[in-house]
Amino acid sequence: MILTFPYNWLVMLHLHGTEHPIVFASRSLSKAGRNYAQIDKEALATVWGVKKFHNYLFGRNFTLLTDHEPLTSIFHPSKSLPVVTAARLQRYALFLAGFDYTIRYKNTKLHGNADGLSRLPLHSETTEEEPDPVGLFYATQFEPLPVTAEQVKRETQRDPLLVKVHGLVMKGWSTPQDEAIKPFYQRKDELTVHCAVLMLGHRAVIPAKLRNQVLTELHEGHLGIVKMKSLARSYIWWPKIDKDIEHLAKSCPGCQLQQNEAGKVPLHPWEWPTTPWQRIHLDFAGPFLGRMFLIIVDAHSKWPEVEIMPSTTSTQTTDRLRTIFAQYGVPAQVVTDNRPQFTSAEFQLFLKTNGIKHITTAPFHPATNGQAERFVQSFKHAMKCEKQSASQLKTNMAKFLLAYRNTPHSTTGESPSMLFLGRPLRTRLDLVKPDLQRKVMNRQIDQAGRKRHSPTRQLSIGQTVMARNYSGKDKWLPGIVRAQTGPLSYQIKVGPNRIWRRHIDLLRASSVKVNDQSDDTAEPHPELGETGQNIAPAEEIVAEPDIELATNPPVVQQQEAGRATTGSE
After folding, report:
1. Does any domain span residue 444?
2. What is the C-alpha separation between 5 and 45, in angstroms, rounded?
3. Would the keyword Nuclease be found if you checked this record's keyword annotation (predicted)?
């Protein structure tokens, strides 16, 4: 059991219900200590006793009795420290946290066994007080700096403002009228004096004369504002120190020359064109895969074009653009970066001649041409994912462009092909729709029926017909239907060993008798002329214009033959 009093200590032992003293001690307060508030005196006595009898207490559970009831809350081992607690009491509580104890309040009237030594104080003006190790530690941290603790002490005594603050800390605070003292008054609960140096918590208050020198030391190594503030909060303080640190960092020539880029401003999107190919964005990708690529992106539909460039001169660039413009038309605006190919006189003349407005991005800011830059990234990623060879590059490019053009874009919500061409591009994925082909065929049949306004004619095998003749002076020749080769095409025997293939539009039903005396076992063949030479077997006959046209029939006959062979079979 430990009993404390502002001037003395007593260590008691309970034995068979009786208190027996083990050791006791007392001390006189220093001149500064006598100016402490009563709660600080009580706390000082508690901490001094624990330090004095450390060998008896450390590692043991003991009970701490005090006649100053506020200390039971401030030093309670299981209660958090109040936020407004003065720095001195905070340090005391931190020290006591290393011991295992229970603190209780005991009324002064019942505290007489620890009161005896206080009635016999030592009449001495000086005490051999051991220095506060915490304050001593922070004071020694100034030694490596060009500003030493001794200099701070000396200049503090010469600084009129700090002299006033020193007096208020030692004698007690009153509401200040001086504006310069108000920053200190707002932190009066944290201000203490150690070795004649004002301390704000564990930080020394630097006099005005030494502040520039200390700031220079803080900026040693050209640390940034945040790191300087963090370092200062470990050692020093004065009013408006953060503003002084910011001013020093911003006025350092070396730091300003090597400063990082300013924060990026919010994105300012391009105005979306109302029609396709109104504004296009150009850029070069490469060297990539050993080649250079010209990238063209339509701002309205996001339709891309990629051209492999043998060289990136202005001449080659304008030649490729001229070809692209011949396919899609001349745009109103072209956006590029500041490459020499795009800023050359030849390129400028090409645009001016075609009435195109040229917009260039800000130097070293590729994000302005983000339409093309983003597609370059997607293009490179897709090409890297494929195994590339000289023969496969163009194939892989075509596959990528087809897929990209047919995929809905995240910005527009539509595929580039829909916005650019007004229709989706047919891909192999369309094959998964089983009814598509039948639907198209039915529509074609309906369309053909509506156009002809007549039912489809049919011929039977062995029927006598008149076949259109393109190789002689007679316009029609009689023949017999030998076989049906398609929905609307037939093989017609028009003479011995002579078989023609004709569309039903070039055949007329006839009652003319035909003398069929040829060998029916002969293989049918396409007509080559009047010679009737057998060139190919029947199964190789295809729906193409008759080779008899080589005999130069009249122009009208050629046109009719063309129409005959282009119908749906």
Report:
1. no
2. 7
3. yes
Residue of 146, 166, 145 lying closest to 157 (CA atoms): 166
Closest CA to 400 of 304, 308, 492: 304
Structural domain boundaries, residue 148: 143-257
Query: What would the two tokens of residue 398 be?
Result: 């075509």
Structural domains of the chain, count: 4
The Cα 135–Cα 193 span in angstroms is 9
pTM of the model: 0.43
Q: Do 96 and 28 reside in the same domain of the chain?
A: yes
373 in any annotated domain: yes
Same domain, 13 and 38: yes
Radius of gyration of the chain, Cα coordinates, nearest whole angstrom: 52
Calculated CA dihedral for residues 13, 14, 20, 21, nearest 10 degrees: 20
- State the residue for tokens 């003293």: 21
Helices (H) and strands (E) in the chain, counts: 21, 19
The helix (run of H) or strand (run of E) holding residue 160 is: helix 160-171
291-322 in b/e form (b: 16+ CB < 10 A) is ebbbbbbbbbbbbbbbbebeebebebbbebbe
Q: Which of 310, 369, 370, 377 is nearest to 339 (CA)?
A: 369
| Residue with token string 């645009």 | 351
pLDDT digit string, tens, across residues 420-444: 999 989 888 877 766 666 777 777 7
pLDDT digits (tens, 9 = 90+) for 196-230: 889 998 889 999 999 988 888 888 878 888 888 88
